[in-house]
Design a protein that fits this description.
seven-stranded mixed β-sheet; 16 helices; binds guanine; binds zinc ion
């Protein structure tokens, strides 16, 4: 168990953080960037009470916090809400960056053997601590996480999140077919495990339980029905799964469930689609599916680095916007190749570029902060810098290294090199933030706060 993390947390105290504050008050416009919904407060003090909640912000030019406030001066750095990763697999840190396969082979060759090891409580506990510390070290303070099929792996994640004060949604994976020995459960055993985990952890502190159907392929219709029943029996449960990621997978689901209109419809028939349902990928959907997502309030967790790495396909974000279903953004490690959200957002931009659209930085950042919080029903707690929310925050260097530093200087207008166009771009703030989003990685991270307490992520 990781004690470094505990030692790193500072005691509760009134805290004032000086930085460039950026968050969203509403969903930004799709397409060409405008400032709708964007709240940028350069060089402000963000005030955080002893209870870890944001109290407000004041311009540093005209305000200085009193002596009863502990001051952290991050002047000249970017302070944003901690990122929310809406789909990621804790045990798959063991297989990130594995060569040579598409989804179904990748699961069999790399992922299932790695997950088998998490049957051991010690492996699960070490893995959970390593994983949550890694999230924090990437500026991600909340996540919707897949454990393994083993009850102990979900236990370990909940316990580790509680120790860190983090917002976590997770659950034991349901898999009663098409999975190897040691990774299969059965309907009644799984029901009992879920009930015990819900009883112990759901709604405790910042933990919530997610009914976790791996994907339609690995659950019998009876298990899907049981998963739907759980969701109806317990208030506020989440549901997480995968949908329409890969064409071979879609064809397999069609064979296994000939009565369903589509892959997504398999989940709908089991009563699994609702406003706390998070479905990863959603690449191979049709208009009927998208309308169903909109009507049920379920969200797609778009996973660009995973979709590129596994060769799964190009998510149609424009179609989601046109029909009006929710989209959040996620790393999907270990199919995804990084826990870093700026790198993931940069990949999302490239996926949309390949589809012939341009994702603006505001839409991308919103989807990873306030948009995700709203889609999860958690915007009273996380995702923005509004008063009363918990101060889950990340402070980032605007640039690291000579290239990014030069680019940032050009964007801010401090340097107009001979090669740069005359004058500033039409949207200087967007240009600066887009360059940050495209060039930043975890080495840009300067500080992380969970519920108003600083985390020593480097020691972790
Ligand atoms: N589909 C079913 N299981 C998985 C998984 O672990 N990762 C991804 N990317 N897709 C899946
Ligand atoms: Zn996944």
């Amino acid at each position: 168990m990781n004690t470094a993390h505990k030692l790193a947390r500072t005691p509760a105290q009134k805290l004032a953080l000086r930085a460039d504050l950026l968050d969203f008050t509403a969903a930004p416009s799709w397409g060409s960037p405008t400032l709708h919904g964007v709240r940028f407060r350069p060089d402000h003090w963000l005030m955080v009470g002893e209870d870890g909640r944001i109290q407000g912000a004041e311009p540093a030019a005209s305000f200085t916090p009193g002596p009863d406030w502990q001051r952290h001066d991050h002047r000249g750095q970017l302070l944003i809400p901690g990122f929310i990763d809406t789909h990621v697999h804790a045990p798959q840190l063991d297989v990130i960056a594995s060569w040579g396969t598409g989804l179904l082979d990748w699961l069999e060759t790399y992922t299932f053997p790695a997950e088998q090891r998490h049957a051991h409580p010690e492996v699960a506990a070490d893995g959970a601590a390593r994983f949550l510390d890694a999230l924090l070290a990437h500026g991600t303070t909340a996540a919707v996480v897949f454990a393994t099929v083993h009850r102990t792996s979900a236990e370990a994640l909940f316990a580790a999140a509680a120790q860190r004060g983090m917002r976590l949604v997770t659950g034991k994976v349901l898999m009663d077919r098409n999975a190897p020995e040691g990774l299969r459960d059965d309907v009644e055993g799984a029901r009992a495990d879920c009930e015990a985990l819900i009883q112990r952890w759901h709604g405790q502190g910042r933990n919530s339980y997610a009914v976790t159907v791996r994907f339609a392929v690995t659950s019998t219709p009876e298990q899907l029905a049981m998963a739907g029943e759980l969701g109806r029996r317990h208030a506020g449960l989440y549901m997480q799964t995968h949908v329409a990621e890969n064409r071979d997978e879609v064809a397999w689901v069609a064979k296994l469930f000939p009565e369903a209109r589509s892959y997504l419809d398999v989940y709908h028939r089991a009563g699994l689609l609702h406003e706390r349902a998070v479905l990863a990928h959603g690449i191979w959907l049709d208009t009927g599916d998208r309308a169903l997502l909109r009507d049920t309030g379920a969200q797609i967790a778009h996973c660009p680095s995973s979709n590129l790495f596994l060769g799964s396909g190009l998510f149609d974000w424009q179609a989601a916007v046109d029909i009006g279903h929710r989209v959040s953004i996620a790393t999907d490690v270990g199919g995804g190749t990084t826990l870093c959200m700026p790198r993931t957002l940069a990949e999302a931009y490239k996926v949309q570029a390949l589809r012939g659209t341009r994702l603006n930085a505001w839409t991308a950042l919103h989807a990873a902060t306030r948009g995700a919080a709203e889609a999860l029903g958690l915007s009273h707690e996380i995702g923005h810098l509004g008063e009363g929310t918990l101060a889950d925050l990340a402070v980032w260097h605007w640039a690291q290294g000579p290239v990014a530093t030069h680019r940032d200087a050009v964007a801010t207008g401090a340097v107009l090199s001979a090669a740069a166009p005359a004058g500033l771009p039409a949207q200087p703030l967007h240009a600066r933030v887009f360059a940050w989003m495209t060039l930043a990685d975890e080495r840009n991270l300067a500080a992380v706060y969970v519920a108003g307490r600083q985390v020593n992520f480097r020691r972790a």
